[in-house]
Each structure stands twice: as C-alpha cells, then as structure tokens.
Amino acid sequence: MSETAPVSHSIFTGLQRLIMNLGLGKLIRFGFIGIMSTLVDIGLLYFFVSYLNVWYIYSAAISYCCGVLFSYCLNKYFTFHDVNPNIFTQFTTFAGISLGSLFMNIAVIWVIVEIFSQNYLIAKIFSTVGVFLINYYGQSKITFRKKG
Questions:
Q1: Separation CA 32–CA 123 (nearest Å)
Q2: How many separate domains does the chain show?
Q3: Is residue 101 one of the residues assigned to a domain?
Q4: How many CB atoms lie within 10 A of CB 49?
Q5: Which residues, other chains included, contact 83 with Cβ-Cβ below 8 Å and sequence gap of 6+?
Q6: In this structure, is residue 41 part of a structural domain?
C-alpha cells in the first residue's frame, strides 16, 4: 500500500507542473469561476421570476449583470491576482468583453441552429466552448493584462 502513495503523488505533482507550465492554471480557474457565475445568473433568474414575480426579460438582464459582477470580483483576485486600483475602468472593460462574448454566443448558436439545422443545445455547447476561449483571451490580455 505504501508503494502506491509515492507513485500517485509523483503523478499528481507531474500533472500539476504540466498544468502550470502550459499556463492552464488560470484557464481552469477562469472556467470554474465561469461555472459558478452561471449558477449565480440562473439562480437569481429563477428567484426573481418565481418569488419576486419580476418579468423574465428584466430578471434575465439583472441576473446576467449580477453574474458578470460576481465573475469580475473572483477573476480579479482569484484567477489573475490583480491589484490594479482603477476598478471602475477595469470593470467596464470586463463587462464590455463579457457583453461581446454574450453576443458572439448568441450569433454562433443562431448560425448552428438556423444554417446547419442542429439542435439548440448542441449549438450552445459548441458556442460556449469557443466563446469561453475568446472571453478568456480578452480578459487576460485586455482587462487583466500585466503592465510592464
């Protein structure tokens, strides 16, 4: 039993080193925060519509904005370890990139469904993967870029 512990530890350490060398650590954290932000968005949407009787369109807009704010706060400190004090400008940039990502997501879904006659859920999966990578690139290279 004691012989397998060092092997599994060395495999885990090697995998961890590979992720860090490839720069995947930030990407994984960004993805995890994206999942959490989506849960905030959907949870608030449900709460506003079901318990507060707010029209679903207004609820969707409010819940999406809350998800973006949640995502910004966690990504700023957890993913990118950013200390830029100019939060208003930085958040505006983050929100703009997020809004652009939303429009790209909708456009890709529309093309896959309307042009290629695929199911909307399949379209959403493809769109989410592609837009996630574009969003990560924009946030890491524009919003949270390292000066210097």
A1: 21
A2: 1
A3: yes
A4: 17
A5: none
A6: no
Residue by residue, DSSP assigns 52-115 as S---HHHHHHHHHHHHHHHHHHHIIIIIS----S-HHHHHHHHHHHHHHHHHHHHHHHHIIIII
pTM for this model (two decimals): 0.77
Report yes or no: 101 and 138 within 8 Å, Cβ to Cβ: yes
pLDDT, one tens digit for every residue, the chain (148 residues): 555 556 556 665 665 665 566 578 899 999 999 999 999 999 999 999 999 999 998 898 999 999 999 999 999 999 999 999 999 999 999 999 999 999 998 999 899 999 999 988 898 888 888 889 999 999 999 999 987 6
Answer whether residue 7 is part of any domain.
Answer: no
> HSE of 17 in the Cβ direction (CA atoms, 13 Å)?
6
User: Is 13 inside any structural domain?
Assistant: no
Name the residue range of residue 113's domain: 82-148
Per-position b or e across 60-92, b if 16+ CB within 10 A of its CB:
beebbebbbbbbbebbbeebbebeeeeeeebbe
